[in-house]
């Protein structure tokens, strides 16, 4: 069965239609062909089955046209084959390529088939008629079915979604913004006995017998605020009380008793526990501070069953792991790096933790220490099946508390309360500290070590304990050797005898500890001025009694460092003096604009004076020839000594 099917996929352009029409015309049945031939007189060609096609206007289509429209000529050829065979009785090639052996003659018996074929062609003609009738230049402009108007666009949404980092920083500063601020001043002092109802008897007795009978301002404000909250929260829910109390941030000057301020509430809270579990972590930045905090906590917890442990870096991690597994301390004092090691080793779990205390917090938050902050936060989430905020009270202490919300944000603070002095600026110096600036001309800077020695001699006080800060370990080693040589070479007056000590990495840990004890002790029979030359490792939190003077031989690099250095003297509301040796206009300007400008002088803060204002004063910058000669000899010896090393 065949029929010339109209294939929509093969819809052609008008030109193609033109040609196919003409080729179709050439394939109409003989009967019609005869009619056409009569009209155009070219019957023979048709009979010869000449493959050339004639266009409507009788011109021969050349081969290039044919090549260019193979698909159309195929159709034409196919139709031709189809109909041509009918003429000469050949076999018929169906449209879909099949062949039947049935020979069709042009006899009447198939006229019905033909008529159907003709009808198909007629239908096709009608279908194509508009195109065929179309002449190139009569192309009608197709009327658009619809107005081509731009599709309505959604209104442009203003970029109200601020960029992620802006949103992040706002959320981070939010922690700071929602912080409750509690101001205090230096008048807030009261007897510890007034806390009799809130502190257990043993703890109160340890405070009054081993520390003091009256509080310092930061201790007053903290105990007045925290103790009632803690006692109430514990009475309501012994396990989740931390979430009710919220976190604590304390910005209090150096030597103001912060260690006692956080130790008292912790001991009070944990003294009623039954089984020893790790409930308080005290994180400090240096090993020296570990021992200092340990002593305070042991004194306070005497007579209770609380176990205070320390992590000694000289111990092996494995040994310490076993020790803590055998007996888990209630309170552990540790450096951040070591804490990360133990958490990764799984030495203890944080599920029972109630207090996380950060002492010298700005130093801790400024240094990554193996990313300790996120390790602890993740450890808390892992060990405790509770949704944030964790019921762990975070207590953050520093004399130069960071206002960097990014760093505070990492602590995931919960309803924090910040305690700070009622002062204009964040950093302030102890009330009884007096600073003096010594302006050294650049031309005389070669004799700076000599000026330092003459300054110490000019103090005329055998009880002098001067802590000299230099910028590096190397400077500490060289300066201490040079000072000792000058004393030996009598670069100073004969009766002056000064003990020179140094803390540096060349010394063993034991020798450094020995020098600190020697410097702090006043039990020597022959009292003489003592000088301890140290780097900024000694500036944080070190609590050495009776440091009478701090000398900034090299200027610190920041106001925070300056506060902590000067804070080694004038502690516990005692007096103290700080000297700044400024060489040339550059250092004088640096001190003024990068250090002094950050310090609050409005609350009890003394203003710095010039050395010449110090009474009695001696002009330490005037050196006679003999002194200069002795000094140069000492320098030569130091150089030779260094060369021999
Ligand atoms: N109420 C008090 N009365 C008398 N002395 C106190 C009192 N509280 C603390 N002290 C003493 O004051 C000294 C300084 O205390 P502490 O080391 O806690 O100060 P700090 O604020 O931590 O200083 P820094 O910021 O340098 O670490 C210590 O010797 C401590 O024993």
From TrEMBL:
Residues 1-105 are annotated as: Disordered. Residues 38-47 have a biased composition (Acidic residues). GO terms for biological process: maturation of 5.8S rRNA from tricistronic rRNA transcript (SSU-rRNA, 5.8S rRNA, LSU-rRNA); maturation of LSU-rRNA from tricistronic rRNA transcript (SSU-rRNA, 5.8S rRNA, LSU-rRNA). Its EC number is 3.6.4.13. The keyword NADP does not apply. PROSITE patterns: DEAD_ATP_HELICASE, HELICASE_ATP_BIND_1, HELICASE_CTER. GO terms for cellular component: nucleolus; preribosome, large subunit precursor. Residues 451-614 form the Helicase C-terminal domain. It catalyses: ATP + H2O = ADP + phosphate + H(+). Residues 56-66 have a biased composition (Basic and acidic residues). One of its GO terms (molecular function) is RNA helicase activity. InterPro entries: DEAD/DEAH_box_helicase_dom, Helicase_ATP-bd, Helicase_C-like, P-loop_NTPase, RNA-helicase_DEAD-box_CS. The keyword NAD does not apply. Residues 22-31 have a biased composition (Basic residues). Residues 239-419 form the Helicase ATP-binding domain. PANTHER family: RNA HELICASE. Belongs to the DEAD box helicase family. This is ATP-dependent RNA helicase. The lineage of its organism: Eukaryota, Fungi, Dikarya, Ascomycota, Saccharomycotina.
